[in-house]
Design goal:
The structure is a homodimer of 215-residue chains. Chain A has 215 residues and is of the alpha/beta class. The first copy, chain A, has one domain (9-214): TIM Barrel, CATH 3.20.20.70. Chain A has helices spanning 23-32, 47-61, 74-79, 94-101, 114-118, 151-159, 174-182, 192-195, 200-214; strands spanning 9-12, 37-40, 68-71, 84-87, 106-111, 131-134, 166-169, 187-190. Chain A has an 8-stranded parallel barrel with strand order 1-2-3-4-5-6-7-8, surrounded by 6 helices. Chain A is globular. The interface between A and B is medium-sized, with 24 and 24 residues.
């Protein structure tokens, strides 16, 4: 049984988008605005830099009770005592990751469509997974290897297949956040809507309002 | 105290160079020719593929008593029950890796020159490290981020600084293997000299002879 987490407003960091303001300053502002979960994602960074970033974020977030999730790298997550790991379909299998993470850390998995959810295309067993990241809801330039956009209808299609918590991701702004919640998602995950915003705190607050209003 | 290992002839795999023959067939032939240690290195591969490759190599090598080392990814090494990890200067710190690996797994670190060994440029503490990979001895096209070639003289310079086992790496063929051993290395690591050879078994046997003759 993993530690509790709240998918309401899930921030995924992007190293290019936060470069000017800085990773920590961006996350700090976003959390003030109501972000409930933070994922460190920097696919081009080496292990040493990732561990350093994860430790700095953990020091910022732990006192606030906001869990820190590390993208892909289970070793980095454990070394930095992060709260969990988010896996893509090409990453280590959820069962392997769970064995390394122990029962308490949070484990998420990206699914691009109902077929990926069912594991029919990949053979991935999601038994060890605590939540699903479903998308891209809308096409985006942030993630180069993302699949085709599935829309809020795609979120609803995955929602119909599982009782696991799901968070919609991919090109979500305030208007789309409401649609995704109404499609049955437990929350929305955003990258550029917060990382690239002139005021991340304000952007987070606006997204949180949109999610709350749609529930 | 890590499990025993023998640096005499250390094969580092390269996904492009083994593509035609296949990873397992290349390693199997190389081991027949006398390779004493194998490192799985595929910096572009995702975690899932790496775990699968590491498990396949482990199944091949364990019955032969040849340790399997995984480049960079501590999580992959533990998931596949590999015998150790090899770290670059930008990877997770040796101390962090050791904490995840436990005391028995083998931990290697690349050092490009005496300054990197001393940690003066990087602040890396090598206390947790079992062996050092020193090079590139000669310039090579295999590793894009490798530093300047240090020659056998550079190997001797690191040898003078430590009693830890060291293996020379980078552009080593039969003639250079002898020089590196005479410079004080405990063994030689090769990529293309075996992976790109028309007959990996024969190539390994010739390198092994060169190392043995130079001792």
């Amino acid at each position: 049984m993993s530690r509790p987490f709240d998918l309401t407003l899930y921030l995924v960091t992007d190293p290019r988008l936060v470069a000017e303001r800085g990773l920590l300053a961006t996350v700090e502002a976003a959390v003030k605005g109501g972000v409930t979960l933070v994922q460190l994602r920097d696919p081009d960074a080496h292990g040493r830099a990732l561990v350093e970033q994860a430790r700095a974020l953990k020091a910022l977030l732990a006192p606030l009770g906001i869990p820190l999730i590390v993208n892909d790298r289970v070793d980095v997550a454990v070394a930095a005592d992060a709260d969990g790991v988010h896996l893509g379909q090409d990453d280590m299998s959820p069962a392997d990751a769970r064995a390394l993470l122990g029962p308490e850390r949070i484990l998420g998995l990206s699914v691009g469509n109902p077929a990926e959810f069912a594991g029919s295309s990949s053979g991935i067993d999601i038994g060890a997974v605590d939540y699903l990241g479903v998308g891209p809801v809308k096409a985006t330039g942030t993630k180069k290897d993302a699949g085709a956009a599935i829309g809020a209808a795609g979120v609803a299609a995955v929602r119909a297949l599982t009782r696991r918590p799901i968070v919609g991701i991919g090109g979500i702004d305030g208007a789309l956040a409401g649609e995704v919640i109404r499609a049955g998602a437990d929350g929305v995950a955003v990258v550029s809507a917060i990382c690239a915003a002139p005021d991340p705190e304000h952007a987070a607050r606006a997204l949180l309002s949109a999610v709350t209003a749609a529930r």
